[in-house]
Every structure is written in structure tokens, then in C-alpha cells.
Amino acid sequence: MQFGIFSVSDITRNPVTGYTPSEAERIAAIVQIARRADEVGLDVFAIGEHHNPPFFSSSPTTLLANIAAQTEQIVLSTAITLITTNDPVKIAEDYAMLQHLAKGRLDLMLGRGNTVPVYPWFGQDIHKGLELALENYNLLHRLWREDVVDWEGSFRTALQGFTSIPRPLDDVPPFVWHGAIRTPEIAEQAAYYGNGYFANHILAPNFHFKPLVDLYRQRFAHYGHGTPEQAIVGLGGQSYIAKRSQDAVRGFRPYFEGSPIYGTSYRLEDFMHGTPLTVGSPQEVIEKTLTFQDGFGDYQRQLWVVDAMGLPLEEALEQVELLGTEVVPTLRKELESRRAAGAPDAPTHASLVRAKYGDAEPRQPRPNPNRGDNVTGTSPYQDSDPELVADLPLVG
């Protein structure tokens, strides 16, 4: 099972000191947080995508490429990549490039996000959000698996004889998680392709997302990918940890109560009791997380938010340290001991390469010359099927 952290990339006023970090400070801080997560042995670091204040992560691929260059083991991911307002051709190219730079330490989570104005900013209609999500991923799936794509849909210009470059590392696409908190159609799409399903599991009551996870599991089995118990599930969470539970509550209260999202609507104690938020000692975080397995079954990825609400960098780094040294080692042992036989691990690039090639050498595509001049019609790569001739559009 994989454990890690994810950030929504908010820039929030510290309610204790009154200080609001600059964008530059917050960007530098998130790189430090990711590096610390790698150092303490966490498995995953994920960053969201936003295009409006008070967030900073408008270009996850740029940020994650920088982090990849400064880390050794940690898998890099997104939380979320906007499948609705990003062109799937650009997603295919950008994340394949990032996969190469990260040497396979990459997957991504696709979703619609929760910012209404982002649709017109990128020339899309929010009323078509679900249709965009479904169609755009259907295209992305093909772009990563077919050397030449002819395609026509409803939301972008048609493709004729198109090759997305670079091809995925080892010709094995990054693993995709579909993130959704309200839409059964997205759970259905994840199940259809045998992809992962990620339930954010914050901002809602405990086990609020269980019906969607159960639907995904059932449909995963329906499409022949395995049993419902073998479906690939990820969960979000949020925590604030201190050695003693009373110190955790005292330390986190001003950030919770100073938050424009939480503090004016909820009591901290009620929110701790009724939602997946855990504020307490390492043991309390462990015990709360074990209830997630009780409710959702064996799952493959657990991520926590630890840097939101104006928490200063020093405290965020301490949270990462406590997760990596006090919480996750025990959770690994406990969850493994409870794990049903046959429950799968989270897919990684290495496991996907083994599944595709066994002991054989992975494909390393080498282009044929003279592609893209709208005249030659050769196959794109030296090892492509010679019958595969790209029918490129001609310019009159």
C-alpha cells in the first residue's frame, strides 16, 4: 500500500501571526515539503491544479519536474489534473515528458475540479463538464497507446494521422486515477478502463463516498478486470499530529477556526468526530485510518493534506516527519496484517512494465525520418507495423 501527502496549493493567511506568504515563498515551501516526504520514506507526493488565487499550482508538470530532479524514490502525482479544460493532446505530451524526466516515478489523477469560472477561462462550457471529462479521457487513453490516432469528437478539432510525442516511457502510459466525489459516470469510466478510483474523502461525513467506491468495485469486476476486491482504490484524508492529542487540538484549533472554509461553520470537535479529519497523537491518526479500511475494504493509496489553512512551513514539515516516522510504519504493518489474500498493490511503473513485457526488454520507440511535412506517409517509428501508414492532412 502507498502512503503520502497531497496539497491543494492554497496560499492562506496564517491566523496566528496574520502573515500571508507570497506566491514565491509558497512555491519554494512546497518543494521543501515534497523533499522531506521523500526523505522520511513516504511513497507519494501529489499536487493539485488551480488557475485562480489564492492557489499557486497552475502548472503541475513544471513543479513536479523540479521536484523529480530533487528527490530519489517518491512517486509524483497530481490531485487533480483538469481533464475538462486541458487539451488531452497536451496532457498526453506533457505527462509523457514528465514521466521520462521522473524515470517512471509518475502517475496522475484526472478530474473536473471545483472552480466554476475555469471553464470559460479555457473556452469551455461548464454545462458540458461531464461530457468533456468522458470524451477527453477516451482520447487521452488512445493517444498513449496508439502510435497513430485518427479521431473525431465534439469538443476539439479532429485528429488525422496524429502521433503524440514523446511516447510514454517504455511504451507504458502513466497509471491513471479518476478522482470524483459525486459522479457515478466517472466511477464507471474508471472501472471500464481498469484504472484507479480516488475518493477525496475530505469535506464530507465519514464514509460519504462509500457508495461510489462500491459502484466502482462492482463495475471493475463487471468489465473483467478482476474481483471487486481487486479494484484499485485511493482515499484522501487530512491530519494534524502532535505527540500528545491535547497539544494537537490546541495547535490546530486556530488554523481550523481561522479558515474561511471551516471555522465559521463547524466546531472543531464536531468536524473531527464526523469527518475523516484526524487531529491527535500518532496513535489516534493510526486508529482513525484503520477505520477507513473497515469501511472501504482493502485499498491501495492513502494521502493526507498537511499543509493547508495557513500552516507555516516549519509545522508542515513537522507533520510530514511525524507521518513518515511515527504513523506510516505502524500503518504498513497493521494494514498488511489485515489485508485479504489477493488484494493488489498500487500499480507502479515497474509493475506495469513487468505486466506488459515480463522478462523481455521494453520498447524504446525510434522515429522514422521526415514525419510532419505533410508529404511523406511512412509509419512514425522504426518498429511500427509497416502496414500502419499515417494518412496526414495535406495543405493545398
Rg value: 22 Å
- Our measurement of the CA-to-CA distance between the termini, rounded to an integer number of angstroms, reads 56 Å
Low-confidence stretches: none
The secondary-structure class comes to alpha/beta
Which sheet architecture does the biggest sheet show?
A: 9 strands, parallel
SSE sequence, one letter per element: EHEHEEHEHHEEEHEHEEHHEHEHH
The average pLDDT is 93
Strand order of the largest sheet: 3-2-1-13-10-9-8-5-4
Strand content: 5-15%
Count of helical regions: 12
Number of E-type strands: 13
The portion of residues assigned to helices is 25-40%
Notes on the structure:
By secondary structure, the chain is of the alpha/beta class. The chain has helices at residues 23-39, 60-70, 88-101, 118-121, 129-143, 184-193, 210-222, 245-257, 268-274, 282-296, 313-338, 349-357; strands at 2-7, 44-47, 75-78, 81-82, 107-111, 149-151, 159-162, 175-179, 196-199, 233-235, 238-241, 277-280, 301-304. The strands form 3 sheets. The protein has a 9-stranded parallel beta sheet, with helices on one face. Strands 6-7 form a two-stranded antiparallel ribbon. A two-stranded parallel ribbon has the order 11-12. Helix 6 packs parallel to helix 7.
